C-alpha cells in the first residue's frame, strides 16, 4: 500500500481526516478481500489520494473481487463501477450499467441575460430549474446548441456551467427526451 504514501510513525489521534480515511482504506485493502464494502470512501481524501484509491479498487476488482461502493460522486462511480444501482430515500430509482445511466451526466447551466425572455419549450434536452426576466438555470444533457439558439434574441451577459450533484438530479423529473 505504498501508493497511499502513509506515514505510520504518528499516533492515529493526530492524523487529519484524510489520513484517518487512508488508514481505513489501507486496512480494508491489505488482506486482498473477495468482497469490499465502501461507504463514501473518498470523503476526506485529496484528489491525488482519491485517484490512488480508485486505482487500487480497480486492481482488486480485476483480481475477481466484488466491490460495493456507496457514493454521491458520479465521477467516482463512473471510474470504478460496472453496474450502478441508485437508491433515493430507500427506493431504487435507477439501475443499469454506467453507460445506461449516461442521462445522469447533465450540465447545470446558469445564463444571465438582458433583452427578451427566451422560450425554452423548444429545447427538449433542457430541464428548467429556475427562470426569471434576466436569468435561467437549466440542466442539460448533450449539445448546448439548442439552448443558445433559444437565447439568440437575448444579450447574454454570463454563462456558468457545472455538473449538478446526483441528489440535485434525482430530486427533479427526468429531462424531456431522455430515457433511463
List keywords for this structure.
180 residues, elongated, four-stranded antiparallel sheet, Alpha-Beta Plaits, Rossmann fold, 27% helix, alpha+beta, two-stranded parallel sheet, single chain, 2 domains, disordered C terminus
Q: What is the CATH homology-level superfamily of the largest domain?
A: P-loop containing nucleotide triphosphate hydrolases
CATH architecture of the largest domain: 3-Layer(aba) Sandwich
Task: Count up the domains.
Answer: 2
Low-pLDDT sequence parts: 174-180
Distance between the termini: 39 Å
Quick structural summary:
With 180 residues, this protein is α+β, with helices and mostly antiparallel strands. The chain has helices spanning 17-30, 47-62, 74-80, 145-150, 166-170; strands spanning 35-39, 66-70, 83-88, 91-97, 107-115, 126-131, 135-140, 154-162. The chain folds into two domains: 2-81, Rossmann fold (3-Layer(aba) Sandwich), CATH 3.40.50; 103-170, Alpha-Beta Plaits, CATH 3.30.70.
Amino acid at each position: 500500500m505504498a501508493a497511499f504514501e502513509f506515514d505510520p510513525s504518528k499516533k492515529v489521534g493526530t492524523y487529519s481526516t484524510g489520513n484517518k480515511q487512508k488508514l481505513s482504506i489501507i486496512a480494508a485493502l491489505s488482506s486482498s478481500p473477495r468482497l469490499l464494502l465502501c461507504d463514501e470512501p473518498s470523503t476526506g481524501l485529496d484528489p491525488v489520494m482519491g485517484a490512488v484509491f480508485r486505482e487500487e479498487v480497480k486492481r482488486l476488482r480485476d483480481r475477481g473481487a466484488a466491490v460495493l461502493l456507496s457514493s454521491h460522486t458520479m465521477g467516482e462511480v463512473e471510474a470504478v463501477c460496472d453496474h450502478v444501482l441508485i437508491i433515493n430515500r430507500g427506493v431504487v430509482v435507477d439501475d443499469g450499467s454506467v453507460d445506461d445511466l449516461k442521462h445522469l451526466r447533465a450540465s447545470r447551466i446558469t445564463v444571465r441575460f438582458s433583452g427578451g425572455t427566451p422560450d425554452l419549450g423548444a429545447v427538449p434536452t433542457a430541464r428548467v430549474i429556475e427562470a426569471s426576466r434576466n436569468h435561467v438555470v437549466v440542466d442539460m444533457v448533450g449539445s448546448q446548441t439548442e439552448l443558445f439558439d433559444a437565447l439568440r434574441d437575448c444579450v447574454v451577459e454570463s454563462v456558468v456551467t457545472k455538473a449538478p450533484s446526483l441528489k440535485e438530479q434525482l430530486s427533479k423529473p427526468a429531462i424531456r427526451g431522455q430515457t433511463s
